Amino acid sequence: MALVTLFDVLGPIMVGPSSSHTAGACRLGLLARQILGGTPERARIGLHGSFAATGEGHGTQPALIGGLLGLDPADERLGTSRELAGPAGMKVVFHSEDLGQGAHPNSVRFVLQRCKERVEVTGASLGGGVVEISAVDGFAVRVRGDLPAVMVVASDVPGSIAHITGVLAEDGVNLATMHVGRRYRGADAVMVLETDTAPSAAALGAISRFSWVHRVRSIAPVSRASGAQGELPGSMASLLAACTAGGGDLAAAIAEMATAHGGSKEGLRARLEQTLEVMQASVRRGLGERTPSPSGLSGWRAATLADHAPRLVGDTLRDVLAAALAVLEVNARMGVIAAAPTAGGAGVLPAVLFVLANARGWGKEALANALLVAGGVGAVIAARATLSGAEGGCQAETGSAAAMAAAAVTYAEGGSAEQVSQAVSLALQGMIGLICDPLAGLVEIPCGYRNASAAVQAIAAAEMALAGMAFPVPADEVIDTVAEVGRRMDAAYRETARGGLATTPAGLRARRACGRCA
Question: What pLDDT is attached to residue 3?
Fold first, then answer.
C-alpha cells in the first residue's frame, strides 16, 4: 500500500484539463529531460493505453513536449508547446505503443537524443499528477520526482555503492531511498539514490570521476510541495487514532503528520492558502466567462445557471452547482486550477467550500483546516484505492472528491472525527461503480455535470453524518470496495472513451465534430 503526502492529493496547481494526462504528463517530461541532461534534439514518444486513447483531447502531447522543454505544469504556455519545440531545436514524433498488460494505462516511453547522448525512459502518470519513472534504458528503476535524486549509470563493480554513498555522506547528504537495477553480475547497472537534500556540484563531480562511472544525473523534484513532506496514514482508522492521540482535533493531527519529516506549520499554512486562492479564482473566472472551450462542448453553462433564480432548491445549492461547473469550464479552457484530488474532480471542493463558507460564515482559518481534513481523507483513498479515472473510473475522481468535500464540511461544522469518517462512507458509497466515459475523450461532458452532482452528494453526506447517522460499512471498507470495483471495471469504462455515454450516437457525433478529440 503506497502512502502519500498531503499535496499529492491537494494539487497540483496546474493548467487543465487533466491532472493525470496533462500535469502528470508534463512532470514525466520534466523527469525525462533531467535524465537525458537537457532539452532533447529528437524525441520519439510512445503513448500507451489511456494516454493513447484520450491523450489528444486531454492535452497529453503538448504537456509531454512542455515538460521536455522545461515548462511547469502551471505554465499557461503549455498549450502552445508544439509551437515552442521548433525554435528550441527539438523535433518530436508521437505514436501509439503497447507497453504490455502490466503497464499502467497512463504510460509513456520516451526515446530521446541530445548530441551523442541517447536514453530510453518509461514512466506512468498514476493519478492526481503523481508520476513514476519505472525504467531507464531497459533497467528497472523507481523515480517519483518528489525528492532530489542522483542517477548513476556505472559498471557493476564490487564496492561501487559504498563509494558513491560515501561521497554523499561527506557532502552532508542524507540518503532516503536507493534502487539498483542490473541485468546480470558484472554488467552495467543503474543506481537511483533519493536524498533529503540535493547534493553539491562538487559531490556530483567526485562521483563522475570514478573510472567505472559512465553517467551521473542530478534530478530535481517535480512534484512534492514544501511544508508537507510527511506521509499520511493509509487508513481512516489510523487517521482517527492519530486524532485521538493528538488531543481530538483532526486538522491539527493531519498538520502534525504532514510536517513530521520536513517543512514547517507556517509553510504548510502558506501552501494551503495558496491552494485556496487558486480554487477561489477558478470559481470566479468560470462564473465570469462565457467563452466556449476549444471543443465547443462547454464554456457557458456555469454562468447560465448562476444567472437563474432557483426553482427547486435555494440559492446556496444553486450556487454550489454553478461553482462546480465553473471550475471544470476553466479547466476545459486550459486555465489554471487546483486539482483536488484530480483535475477531473477539481470542481467539487471549491464549490462546496466557498459557497458554504459564505452561507455559514466560515473564516479563512476554518477553510484552511477544512482543506487539511479533505487532504487527509484524499491521501487515505489514494493509498487504499486510486485517484485515477484510468484505473478506477469516475468513482476514483469525482467520488473521491465528494468524500473529501463531505469530510471538510463535516469538520468545518463542528463534527467529530468519527462523524467525519461517517461522512466519507456516506459520500463514497453513493459513487461506487461510477464509470469514466468522457464524450470525445475530453474532461468536459459528463465530467462537469458529475462534479456538480458530486458536490451535492458531499453536502447530503455531511448533513446525514452531522445528524448522527452511521453507515454500516466502515470508511476503509468502502474505500477498499472502490478499489475492487475499479480493478473489475472493463477498460472501456476507465477514461478511454470506448464505452458508456462516449459511444452513444450523440457521443460519437460530438467526437466527429471535435477537431482535438480522441
Answer: 57
